[in-house]
């Protein structure tokens, strides 16, 4: 895969409500380096990403521009655009900027959507998922890890409590991480054809009828969501070299 055909979209426009920091989550520092910059470090170190488009809220543009300045990500080019109210809106906004830039030249290109909040994702995982997406025959690939808890489905029950409605077979369940990587034409088509709420990028591609491959994920690709996750990330960082 030619690196100039691998484009990362990095959603970073969230506020980080559950983390509860005084700055947007992407700008929260882990051992002195912002989560967003660490996520970009990992993408650049993979050596397979040609450019990264960071998607932020309007209010963050100045601060993010300043944070990006002075970093050296080698041949990986980094640009910034404005996102939307929900994560899916942010990805859609980034995709529009990317496709406008590429014009008709989308064949053979892939897009890697990677949360800024998954800041310790190993470069090797980025390479693995890109390689799986490029190899086909599936339209894309996502990193997954086994689920350790038993998962229940629930529905509203009597007296305002929830009632358990089922227990899916845990052996068939996986938690999904990022980067989620897709053939760009399939991703664009999925965005054109599928509407409605989605919680990850692959579900849109699946609903459009494409096949998505699942490749082994990595615990270090955890998403920083709560203060507990940040504490865990600090532990992970202490035990090994950064990408
Ligand atoms: N994200 C985004 N645009 C939004 C919402 C989220 O680009 N409107 C990004 C976040 O910045 C993050 C990723 O999507 O990198 C995953 O979202 P999540 O972990 O939920 O982050 P936040 O929405 O910031 O956190 P919270 O839900 O706790 O507010
Ligand atoms: Mg959120």
UniProtKB/TrEMBL annotation:
InterPro entries: IspD, IspD/TarI, IspD/TarI_cytidylyltransf_bact, Nucleotide-diphossugar_trans
Site positions (Transition state stabilizer): 18, 25
Name of the protein in its database record: 2-C-methyl-D-erythritol 4-phosphate cytidylyltransferase
PANTHER family according to UniProt: 2-C-METHYL-D-ERYTHRITOL 4-PHOSPHATE CYTIDYLYLTRANSFERASE, CHLOROPLASTIC (PTHR32125)
Gene name tied to this protein: ispD
Pathway(s) served: Isoprenoid biosynthesis; isopentenyl diphosphate biosynthesis via DXP pathway; isopentenyl diphosphate from 1-deoxy-D-xylulose 5-phosphate: step 2/6
Domain of life: Bacteria
Residue numbers marked as site, Positions MEP for the nucleophilic attack: 170, 223
Native organism: Corynebacterium bovis
Keyword terms, alphabetized: Isoprene biosynthesis, Nucleotidyltransferase, Transferase
